[in-house]
Amino acid sequence: MDFRPSWQACLGTSMFLLFVAVPSAVQASNHEDIANPGAKSSTVPISPLYPPNVPDLPPIQPVLPEALSTRLVLKLSERRVYVYQGNSLQATYPVAVGGVGWETPIGSFQVAAMLENPGWTNPFTGEVTPAGSASPLGDRWIEFWTDGTNAIGFHGTPDRDSVGEAVSHGCVRMLNEDIRQMYAIVQLGTPVNVEP
User: Fold this and answer.
1) Cα–Cα distance measured from residue 119 to residue 145, given in angstroms and rounded to the nearest whole number
2) Are 74 and 195 a contacting pair, CB within 8 Å?
3) Beta strands 128-129 and 120-121: pairing type?
4) Residue of 11, 41, 15, 10 lying closest to 26 (CA atoms)
5) Gyration radius (Cα) of the chain, Å
6) What gap in Å lies between CA 45 and CA 192, rounded to an integer?
7) Do residues 92 and 120 make contact, with C-beta atoms less than 8 angstroms apart?
8) What is the rounded CA–CA span in Å between residue 105 and residue 11?
9) 27-66 burial by CB neighbour count: b if 16+ within 10 A, else e?
10) Across 54-63, 108-117, 148-157, least confident range
11) 52-77 average pLDDT score
12) What values do phi and psi take at 171, rounded to 5?
């Protein structure tokens, strides 16, 4: 006769110990602590989550994504764009906005495209101006609105005197040095809120 335990018997014993004996021992230990709160327990509570040799760690404070997010607020009446990191103002820049009949759209948008040294195609004549100092888009483009054919965005300009005015065809002109700084801060998906 063979007295070696079968694998089923080993499995059954293991399951009994895991689900009946261990929890009963922990419950009995906890019951003793509740019945006599002043007494020191001679047993270490068993935690299924942490091995007994792991030191206690301080609680982790969650960092909310809103606190880290960058957003742009364009105030058309002030002709300024404000760059926020969470609720903290990081930078502000003067801008030119859309003129009469070509107003910059108001609403909530997000950065949809970013280009360094963009060329420009005149939407009325089809004439192409290559990237460079003569490009009406300056040296950076940050798009936040499109109808599928035309696009509006922040861009640099060779016409420094236009910044602060309402003279564009809807785009937001910035000094080239300012658009370069803002370009380094924002990314695709950055919220853009355009206010009157």
Assistant:
1) 18
2) yes
3) antiparallel
4) 41
5) 33
6) 53
7) no
8) 70
9) eeeeeeeeeeeeeeeeeeeeeeeeeeeeeeeeeeeeeeee
10) 54-63
11) 70
12) -75, 170
Mean pLDDT of 72-96: 98
pTM of the full predicted structure?
0.66
Q: Which residues on adjacent β-strands are paired with residue 81?
A: 74, 93
Task: Give the domain ranges of the chain.
Answer: 7-56, 69-195
Q: What are the DSSP E strand ranges found in the chain?
A: 70-75, 80-85, 88-94, 97-98, 107-110, 113-116, 120-121, 128-129, 140-146, 151-155, 166-168, 172-173, 191-195
Q: 70-75 and 191-195: which strand pairing? A: parallel
State which amino acid sits at residue 134: A
- Does the pLDDT value for residue 193 go beyond 60? yes
pLDDT band for position 134 (50/70/90)?
Answer: confident
For domain 69-195, say whether CATH 2.40.440.10 is its number. yes
In angstroms, the CA 153 to CA 84 distance is 18
**Amino acid residing at 79:** R
Q: Tell me, what's the pLDDT at 44? A: 47
For 151, the token pair is: 């696009």
Report the pLDDT averaged over residues 48-60: 57
pLDDT above 80 for 140: yes
What percent of the chain lies above the pLDDT cut of 90? 59
Amino acid (1-letter code) at residue 194: V
Mean pLDDT of the region 102-129: 94
Task: Using alpha carbons, select from 108, 131, 127 the residue that is nearest to residue 119.
Answer: 131
